[in-house]
Design a protein that fits this description.
- The chain is an alpha+beta fold.
- It folds into 2 domains: 100 residues, Rossmann fold (3-Layer(aba) Sandwich); 104 residues, Hypothetical Protein, Haloacid Dehalogenase-like Hydrolase, Chain: A, domain 2.
- It has 8 helices and 11 strands.
- The strands form 3 sheets. Strands 8-7-6-9-11-10 form a 6-stranded mixed beta sheet, sandwiched between helices. A 3-stranded antiparallel beta sheet has the order 3-4-5, with helices on both faces. Strands 1-2 form a two-stranded parallel sheet.
- A hairpin with a 3-residue loop joins β10 and β11.
- The longest helix is centred in the middle third of the chain and has 16 residues.
Amino acid sequence: MTVTVPQPAERAAADIRLIVTDMDGTLLDDAKRIPDGLWSLLAELRRRDVLFCPASGRQYATLAKEFADAGQGMVFIAENGTYVVRDGVELSSDPLDPSVAARIVTTTRGLRAEGVDVGAVVCGKRSAYVERTDEAFLAEARKYYTRLQPVPDATAVDDEILKVALFDFGPVERTTAPALRPFTSTHQVVVSGAHWVDIRNVTADKGAAVRRLQDDLGIT
């Protein structure tokens, strides 16, 4: 009798049910593009019943568009862990209190009145919302938000708000971040790069989203 012994790589692959990866600085190349070789890998992972999950601060709609060629079966951890979606169906979310989002927008308006070149992106489940409509600001917001809707009053949008992101054309840590200090005792205020700062719930992060996803899928 001939016995076929699986190769070590095959045995290891059989134990893997979920792969989670960050986008910027990890999966994407230096030009912020998905490597061409990923698509064939995703097909092989699907064949092996392994879930692939990008985790990012980007909007869900943006991630879904970037991975449109991958087809069904993917899970997305979007908006820095505040929104988890599989095949268009929400698995979990950690939305902001609407009154908090409104206070952040009001703070942003105050900064603008003082001459700070800043704008808020109110990140909802269905879309992102902005009050600024100048092309320079919209061009920066569109890099991360595929669904972007200008509105006259971002404190009154009919959507569940996941986080609020502020873009400052100057150094964000000089003026905008200090103005958000009142929120730091109750929320996460996270500077991202030279110009962006996010405000979200203290319970919201990618790690927490992965743990919830593991619980939902029964993966340890």
